[in-house]
Amino acid sequence: MAHGAGGKATQTLVEAVFLTAFHNPVLARLEDQAVCEAGGARLAFTTDAYVVSPLFFPGGDIGDLAVNGTVNDLAMAGARPLHLSAGFILEEGFPVADLTRIAASMAKAAAVAGVQVVTGDTKVVERGKADGCYLTTAGVGVVEHRFELGAARARPGDAVLVSGPIGEHGTTVLLARGELGIESDLESDTAPLAGPVAALLGACGEGVRCLRDATRGGVATVLNEIARASGVAVVLDEGAVPVRAQVRGAAEILGIDPLYIACEGRMVVVVDAARAEAALDALHAHPLGREAALIGHVVADPAPLVLCRTEFGGTRIVDVLVGDPLPRIC
After folding, report:
1. Residue among 101, 118, 96 at smallest CA distance from 62
2. Distance between CA 64 and CA 192 in Å, rounded?
3. Tell me: the pLDDT tens digits for 159-187?
4. Do residues 57 and 122 lie in contact, with contact meaning Cβ atoms separated by under 8 Å?
5. What's the pLDDT at 235?
6. CA dihedral sign, ordered 122, 47, 140, 65
7. What is the pTM of this model?
8. 183-222 confidence digits (pLDDT tens)
9. Is the Cα dihedral 162, 33, 141, 64 positive or negative?
């Protein structure tokens, strides 16, 4: 299960198996999408699979999660998302009413994100072989700017921002399972990020170095990927990281650091420090970025580590996620 959690085991699997088998310069960048030239246009392309349990949770379900997740992977390249595909793997006996509800949720999310589901596929497998419903989505978008975004572009002195409170999706899904007996009004943060990305790029242009949505492995894993790709270190201010009380409380009960809990509507932004204030202003002006915050800075050493200055005055290492503390959250 750890191989699917987005942390060290996932990195090892990807590098040992998939990079070896499919090696090419585009894949080697290990971004959440590929940006390719086609007919004179720059296109972003991505694919993903969703196996969340439960299928329905406060604030969303597997349907809008699939749409928003794919849209966000495209948006992290600064692309304008256009079209999606959807593949359904259904277990024998899965209620048609639930499938109808999922499809309606996908249609609503696609309309909000300004994309269309234009092709797809359906498979049915024997009872007990698919846990109800699995979803795969792919997406394509157009990149209308000419500058590069990527994990390898962070530079010492850059500012690190997050677009809102972290860990809400993973915590919501965990509580929705009912195994902990904790009641909360917390909802998933699932949302499409193409709008705030467009505002950010419009305000800061090439000052934006890197965008990453903090899904599996959370903010901690994303920052470790950036530090590793750029050969830099990242220093976080623990007190500046926005975390809702419900998320912090659940994390304390479970012994989990909120920095490792998945989001589905939050992004990490690395931006030239000279443009940090403009970036925050652009995010604050958008409904999905009202609680954006500057949480740290990029430094030269000790690379490639992520450090966190705690609220008690100490410093700790924030390593890549090990194991799988929150299974099946996307």
Report:
1. 101
2. 9
3. 999 999 999 999 999 999 877 777 788 99
4. no
5. 98
6. positive
7. 0.94
8. 788 999 999 999 999 999 999 999 999 999 999 889 999 9
9. negative
The overall average pLDDT reported for the chain is 94
Q: Is the pLDDT of residue 326 over 70?
A: no
Q: Is the pLDDT of residue 107 over 90?
A: yes
Residues 7-54: tens digit of each pLDDT: 788 888 998 999 999 999 999 998 999 999 988 899 999 999 999 999
Token readout for 108 is 């609503």
Contact by Cβ (8 Å): 116, 83: yes
Phi-psi region of 72 (alpha: psi -120 to 50; beta: other; left: phi over 0): alpha
Three-state SS letters, the chain: CHHHCCCHHHHHHHHHHHHHHHCCCCHHHCCCCEEEEECCEEEEEEEEEECCCCCEECCEEHHHHHHHHHHHHHHCCCCEEEEEEEEEEEECCCCHHHHHHHHHHHHHHHHHHCCEEEEEEEEEECCCCCCCEEEEEEEEEECCCCCCCCHHHCCCCCEEEECCCCCHHHHHHHHHCCCCCCCCCCCCCCCCCHHHHHHHHHHHHHHEEEEEECCCCHHHHHHHHHHHHHCCEEEEEHHHCCCCHHHHHHHHHHCCCHHHCCCCCCEEEEECHHHHHHHHHHHHCCHHHCCCEEEEEEECCCCCCEEEECCCCCEEECCCCCCCCCCCCC
The yes-or-no verdict on residue 325 having pLDDT over 70 is no
Q: Which has the closest alpha carbon to 291: 263, 313, 266?
A: 266
pLDDT of residue 104: 98
Q: Note the residue count of the chain.
A: 330
Tokens coding 252:
């304390």
Give the Å distances, CA to CA, from 42 to 118, 142, 265.
20, 6, 25
126-133: average pLDDT: 94
Contacts of 8 (CB under 8 A, 6+ apart): 2, 320, 321, 322
